[in-house]
Amino acid sequence: MDVTFFAEIIPRLLTGLPLTLQLASLSVLFGIIIALPLALAQRFRHPLIDWPIRTYVAIFRGTPLLVQIFLIYYGLGQFRFFFQELGVWSVFREPYWCAILALTLNTAAYGSEIIRGGLQSVPQGEVDAAHAFGMSPWTTLRRIVLPITARHALPSYGNEIILMVKGTSLASIVTLMEITGIAHGIISQTYRPIEVFICAGAIYLTLNFAITRMLAAIEHRLGRHLRPPAVSIA
Amino acid sequence: MTDAIRLLGFESGGWGFALLAASLVTLVLSVAGFSLGAAIGGLAAAARVSQSRLLAGIADGYGTIFRGVPDLLTIYLLYFGGSIALTTVGRWIGLNGFIGLPAFATGTFAIGIISGAYQAEVFRGAWLALDRGQVEAAYAYGMPHRLALRRVILPQLMRHAVPGLSNVWQLVLKDSALISVIGLVELMRQAQIGAGSTRQPFIFYTAAAALYFIIASATGVLFRRGERITMRGVRRG
After folding, report:
1. Is the CB of B188 less than 8 angstroms away from the CB of A194?
2. Which domains, and CATH codes, for chain A?
3. Which tens digits make up the pLDDT trace of A47-87?
């Protein structure tokens, strides 16, 4: 193994980091924005609400992300005139937005199930107590239900975020040059897959480690009131 | 709509047979990769709970790396790395030129390595959940080691492992689509070929999605049945 080769490829691989971060953070953000209402809507237990949501979740959890990306990027391209009519063709023409759309819809499906599980773990007694205090349903949701849900759902949602970071690598198949795309390029030029894998892998592992630490810090903060206060022994 | 029926049908000019055959490749590839992953995962789990800190460390590193790095990157590593190794070996025995790895074998190996990392976690969790008293009771009854393993340890281990294995299987099935990038004509690749030659990507990728969904649902039923079988003898309620 020679050091100069590593020194040469690490900066090249790092140029893909901003794109990887953008794809992951935007799709996770949009994903949560979609997932939360989907999870909340299922609390009404109305078949006309539940059915479409369950179908959406089952489809996006039961098919490969790669198929979803291709269906959106290549498949929807067939309806170009329709999208031009609507004036949104500039979105579906860009692999960047197609990848974000596919990743968002995918993570929203998984995320809504995680949040739904979190909502179910809220003890009924807490909700009853809130009502007894005269809280409105909205205040109950904001002050009682959502904080408890967040605490329960965060560990699973953390796993989902890591999966999304890994999922962004598929964007390279629709020509986006994020870390894996650049890695593939360097491997085909140099035929040194092991060195490239070590460097690109190290970048992903560092990224995932940072995310894990960040989530652990948030989890620690959310659980503040559950821990005994620090006692100073004078 | 008539277009879709003609393209996906079984008449001449229809892609029905090709897509079904490719689904079979996907299924066989996934089963092979999952089985290899079970073997690797079993060994890695055994290493994790073993007394040897070196073995435990190696298994831990293996899990961290292959669960943290994108699967696509792992597939590239094994495909290109394997081909280079094979070419080098070829040169020793006098074969010149680049030798490509057989795509099916590489795909199986890649899925085995990736899913093994996840299955190791499942098996380790199942091992830790195993009731020690049950094992001691088996030996107290005078069961030889292998009989205890077969009658007491493995059935209970599977009880804890099957739900987790079911999740890993769903992951494997979806991961198998990535093997299309190294040229194996499985379902994803066949859909790409169909989409390319008919210029009907929407129809073909929708068909592929539907077939993946059917395979995932049908095999999901099998795993639930397996779960019921392993849960026999557990008192509930």
Report:
1. no
2. 3-124+131-224 (1.10.3720.10)
3. 999 999 999 999 999 999 999 999 999 999 888 888 888 88
Contact B217 A76 (CB under 8 A): no
Residues of B with CB under 8 A from a CB of A: 64-65, 68-74, 76-77, 79-81, 84, 170, 173-178, 180-181, 188, 191-192, 195, 200-202, 205-206, 208-209, 212-213, 216-217
Instruction: Give me the residue label for tokens 């699967």.
Output: B71
Contact A62 B175 (CB under 8 A): no
**Complex confidence, ipTM:** 0.90
The whole model's pTM is what?
0.91
Cβ contact B68–A162 (<8 Å):
yes
Tens digit of each residue's pLDDT (9 = 90 or more) over B81-114: 988 888 888 888 877 777 778 899 999 999 999 9
**SS3 per-residue string spanning chain B:** CHHHHHHHCCCCCCCHHHHHHHHHHHHHHHHHHHHHHHHHHHHHHHHHCCCCHHHHHHHHHHHHHHHHCCHHHHHHHHHHHHHHHHHHHHHHCCCCCCCCCCHHHHHHHHHHHHHHHHHHHHHHHHHHHCCHHHHHHHHHCCCCHHHHHHHHHHHHHHHHHHHHHHHHHHHHHHHHHHHHHHCCCCHHHHHHHHHHHHCCHHHHHHHHHHHHHHHHHHHHHHHHHHHHHHCCCCCCC
Instruction: Answer whether CATH 3.40.50.720 is correct for domain B2-69+101-230.
Output: no
